[in-house]
C-alpha cells in the first residue's frame, strides 16, 4: 500500500503535537512535585518562628520589602491549598500571612506582612522525629543601642542569678514519652517550679530563658544568660532511649574536648568575643601579649569547667534523695547549651520519659516539686560555699573553706576573690598542693 506524501506530513505533525502534549503534562507534574502541607507559628518574648511543613526538600528564595514591611518567600515547583486566615491572631510581629502571585506560575509565593523590621533568619530542616521537611523563618527583635548599655560597676549585695533553660519547646517537642507525653511540657513545668523555689530564698534570683511553648535556639541560650549576668546556667531535660528499661536522673557537663574547641574559637576572635571571658575580658581583648591573653582566658575556662563539675556533683547528691540516679557521677558530653566560657553550666536529665514509671513521675506535680527542691538545695549549698563577688552571700563572713574533690588552690582563690599568694600565706602553704577535706582559712 502506497502512503501519500500528505499523509506522511500529517502523521509527523500529529506525532510532534502528541509529544508536546506529553511533555507539557510531564512538566506540570515536575513543577508541582513539592507542596506546603501546613504552617505553624510560635511567638516568644523576643522572636517569632514560622514553620512551613513541606512534602519534600524545600527549593526556595526570599526577599524583604519596606513601606510596608514584608517578607516574600517563593517556594519553587510547589503548590498549596492552605488557609492562612487565623494563623497570626496571637502574634504581634506578623500581622498577616497570605498567598500572592509569583513570577513563575509553577511556584507558590507566600507573603508575611510584618509590624516592623526584624533580624531575619531563614533555613531548611531535614526530617526528624515526627516532622518531615521544613522551612523555618525566624524574626528576632533588634537590640537598640540603649538596650546594650551595661553598668561596669560591680553591684554590691546583689542577688545571685541562676538562668534556667527548659529544654526544647515550640515545634521541637523533644522526646515523646512511653504514653505520649512531650518532653517540652515536662521541662517547662519543672523549670517554673525550680524558679519559684529559688525566688523564695533571700539573695537568689531565677531567670527563665523560656517562659512558654516556643523554641529558643541553642546558641542564644548562653547569650541570654549572660545578658542577665547569670552566675549559673541549668538546662532541664528528660532523657529517652529506644527501649523502655533505662530510668533515673543524670547530670551532664561540657566535655573537655568541646570546651577546648570553644576556647580556641574565642581566643582566635578575642576582640569580638572578649565578653565571653568574664572579668578579664577587657584585658584579654586589649593586650598585645598573646601569651598573656591565652593564660587569662585559660584560667577563666578552667574556673568555669571545674565549677560546673563541682556543682554537678552537689546536684547528684541532692537528686539521689528524691529519685533514682541513672549515672552516679557527672557525665561529659558535647552540648551546645553549655558552651559559655564564663558561666558554670550543667544539663540535668530529670529522668527517662521513655520509661513508663519515670514518665508518670515526670508529669506528676508533686514529683516535679521534689526535683525542684532538690536542685534548689544543690544551688544553695554551692553558692553558700562559693558566693559570687558582690553578692549578698559574699558579704557574709566565710572564713574557712573545706577542700572538695576536683578543686585546685587557684580555683579556690578565684572563687573567694583573693590572690593565690595571699591564700598560701594565710595558710602557711609552700606549694599549691592541697588535699580533699583540708580546711583553708580565707584571708579578708
UniProtKB/TrEMBL annotation:
GO molecular function, one term: N-acetylmuramoyl-L-alanine amidase activity
InterPro entries: AMIN_dom, LysM, LysM_dom_sf, MurNAc-LAA_cat, N-acetylmuramoyl_amidase_3
GO BP term, pick one: peptidoglycan catabolic process
Entries under SUPFAM superfamilies matching the protein: LysM domain, Zn-dependent exopeptidases
EC number: 3.5.1.28
The reaction(s) this protein catalyses: Hydrolyzes the link between N-acetylmuramoyl residues and L-amino acid residues in certain cell-wall glycopeptides
Top class in the EC scheme: hydrolase
Tree of life domain: Bacteria
This protein's record includes keyword Phosphoprotein: no
Entry GO CC: outer membrane-bounded periplasmic space
Keywords associated with the record: Cell wall biogenesis/degradation, Hydrolase
PROSITE patterns: LYSM
Signal peptide: none
Ranges for domain LysM: 399-442
Family: Belongs to the N-acetylmuramoyl-L-alanine amidase 3 family.
Protein name, entry field: N-acetylmuramoyl-L-alanine amidase
Protein species of origin: Pseudoalteromonas luteoviolacea CPMOR-1
Amino acid at each position: 500500500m502506497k502512503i501519500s506524501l500528505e499523509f506522511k506530513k500529517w502523521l509527523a505533525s500529529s506525532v510532534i503535537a502528541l509529544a508536546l502534549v506529553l511533555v507539557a503534562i510531564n512538566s506540570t507534574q515536575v513543577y508541582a512535585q513539592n507542596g506546603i502541607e501546613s504552617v505553624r507559628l510560635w511567638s516568644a518574648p523576643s522572636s517569632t518562628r514560622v514553620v512551613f511543613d513541606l512534602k519534600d526538600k524545600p527549593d526556595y528564595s526570599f526577599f524583604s520589602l519596606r513601606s510596608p514591611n514584608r517578607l516574600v518567600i517563593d517556594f519553587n515547583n510547589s503548590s498549596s491549598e492552605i488557609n492562612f486566615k487565623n494563623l497570626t491572631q496571637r502574634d504581634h510581629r506578623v500581622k498577616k500571612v497570605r498567598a500572592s502571585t509569583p513570577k513563575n506560575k509553577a511556584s507558590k509565593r507566600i507573603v508575611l506582612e510584618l509590624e516592623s523590621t526584624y533580624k531575619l533568619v531563614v533555613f531548611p530542616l531535614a526530617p526528624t522525629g515526627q516532622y518531615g521537611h521544613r522551612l523555618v523563618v525566624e524574626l528576632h527583635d533588634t537590640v537598640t543601642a540603649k538596650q546594650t548599655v551595661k553598668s561596669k560597676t560591680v553591684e554590691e549585695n546583689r542577688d545571685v542569678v541562676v538562668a534556667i533553660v527548659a529544654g526544647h519547646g515550640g515545634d521541637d517537642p523533644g522526646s515523646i514519652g512511653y504514653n505520649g507525653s512531650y518532653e517540652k511540657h515536662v521541662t517547662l513545668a519543672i523549670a517554673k517550679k525550680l524558679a519559684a523555689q529559688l525566688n523564695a530564698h533571700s539573695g537568689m534570683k531565677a531567670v527563665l530563658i523560656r517562659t512558654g511553648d516556643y523554641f529558643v535556639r541553642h546558641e542564644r541560650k548562653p547569650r541570654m544568660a549572660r545578658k542577665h549576668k547569670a552566675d549559673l546556667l541549668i538546662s532541664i531535660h528528660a532523657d529517652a532511649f529506644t527501649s523502655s528499661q533505662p530510668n533515673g536522673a543524670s547530670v551532664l557537663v561540657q566535655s573537655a574536648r568541646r570546651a577546648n574547641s570553644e576556647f580556641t574559637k574565642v581566643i582566635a576572635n578575642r576582640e569580638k568575643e572578649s565578653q565571653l571571658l568574664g572579668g578579664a575580658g577587657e584585658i584579654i581583648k586589649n593586650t598585645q601579649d598573646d601569651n598573656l591573653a591565652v593564660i587569662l582566658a585559660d584560667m577563666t575556662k578552667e574556673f568555669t569547667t571545674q565549677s560546673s563539675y563541682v556543682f554537678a556533683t552537689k546536684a547528684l547528691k541532692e537528686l539521689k534523695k528524691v529519685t533514682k540516679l541513672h549515672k552516679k557521677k557527672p557525665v561529659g558530653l558535647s552540648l551546645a547549651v553549655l558552651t559559655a566560657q564564663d558561666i558554670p553550666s550543667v544539663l540535668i536529665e530529670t529522668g527517662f520519659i521513655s520509661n513508663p514509671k519515670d514518665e508518670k513521675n515526670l508529669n506528676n506535680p508533686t514529683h516535679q516539686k521534689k526535683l525542684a527542691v532538690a536542685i534548689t538545695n544543690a544551688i544553695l549549698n554551692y553558692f553558700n560555699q562559693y558566693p559570687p563577688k558582690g553578692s549578698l552571700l559574699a558579704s557574709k563572713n566565710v572564713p574557712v573553706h573545706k577542700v572538695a574533690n576536683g578543686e585546685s588552690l587557684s580555683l579556690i582563690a578565684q572563687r573567694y576573690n583573693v590572690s593565690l599568694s595571699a591564700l598560701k600565706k594565710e595558710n602557711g602553704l609552700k606549694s599549691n598542693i592541697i588535699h580533699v577535706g583540708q580546711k583553708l582559712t580565707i584571708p579578708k
